[in-house]
Amino acid sequence: KEAQTQQKLANVVILATGGTIAGAGASAANSATYQAAKVGIDKLIAGVPELSQVANVRGEQVMQIASESITNENLLQLGRRVAELADSADVDGIVITHGTDTLEETAYFLNLVEKTDKPIIVVGSMRPGTAMSADGMLNLYNAVAVASSKEARGKGVLVTMNDEIQSGRDVSKMINIKTEAFKSAWGPLGMVVEGKSYWFRLPAKRHTMDSEFDIKNIKSLPDVEIAYSYGNVSDTAYKALAQSGAKAIIHAGTGNGSVSSRVVPSLQALRKDGVQIIRSSHVNAGGFVLRNAEQPDDKYDWVVAHDLNPQKARILAMVALTKTNDSKELQRMFWEY
Ligand SMILES: NC(=O)CC[C@H](N)C(=O)O
């Protein structure tokens, strides 16, 4: 009978990459001071025996790092492994455990390049497993529960943190000291409670099956850099980034991606030299950059990142540049994804 129940459960693979969910501190009081990326995936799975009630789970240690150090090469490696698993008939869903610092970037990257409707869930934690009131166990349980559910199919890459199901495209780490760290300006897609998912809305942007990008066709990612802006900003960083080979510079601008008059001429010159200038916003709760508002983008041939924050704009720009260097095409992609 036990074998029968096991057969009915979905097969979920957990790809572990590190982060606080695999972190360890010296004492249970250490909720914020600890080392990330210490505990292996087998131990993480063994720590949540309830996982076996929602899925047949197996783990793979893809890497063991803190996510602030994830490179483009790491992204491609992870993306390729996810695609292989998604193509396997005996895999129903994939969970990726990840540090929270760049979790939103990896989730958005996978959302753009994975050609599958199987659930892909990226999950992390804000406290290490050794801390009092650690949040990783429940976040992981929720991730596996969502990954094993049929309703999660075709909804793009998802993130389960703090009982919420978020779109990997929209979600961002908004605070680094609370367990309710991950928010989306447009709200969560649903909730996961005691292993059951409750859905409220669907992503409207192109993703996964409906995306024109495919990890299998991406050999490498071009260099795209971010320059943080403010009123008294100088053009030193913009120029240096271009000189070091950046194909596009994400302007992490104020407000509506606005650009200080101190650097407008330099950004125009960089565009003339072939560098794509992409206006984004570093507004905290989520920017909303509109074309030809604040700056004449048509005249300067600049692109706007719309609601993508600078780090997400960088991900889309890298993926988009593998296909085109036409600024009009890039702008179309920034509206559609
Ligand atoms: N909460 C976390 O996961 C942060 C730990 C670490 N900086 C990382 O992103 O991997």
From TrEMBL:
InterPro entries per UniProt: AsnASE_II (IPR004550), Asparaginase/glutaminase-like (IPR006034), Asparaginase/glutaminase_AS1 (IPR020827), Asparaginase/glutaminase_AS2 (IPR027475), Asparaginase_C (IPR040919), L-asparaginase_C (IPR027473), L-asparaginase_N (IPR027474), L-asparaginase_N_sf (IPR037152)
Annotated ranges, domain Asparaginase/glutaminase C-terminal: 223-334
Pfam families: Asparaginase (PF00710), Asparaginase_C (PF17763)
Active-site residues, as the UniProt record annotates them: 20, 100
Domain L-asparaginase N-terminal intervals: 11-199
SMART domains: Asparaginase (SM00870)
Domain of life of the source: Bacteria
Family: Belongs to the asparaginase 1 family.
Name of the protein this chain belongs to: Asparaginase
Lineage start: Bacteria, Pseudomonadati, Pseudomonadota, Gammaproteobacteria, Pseudomonadales
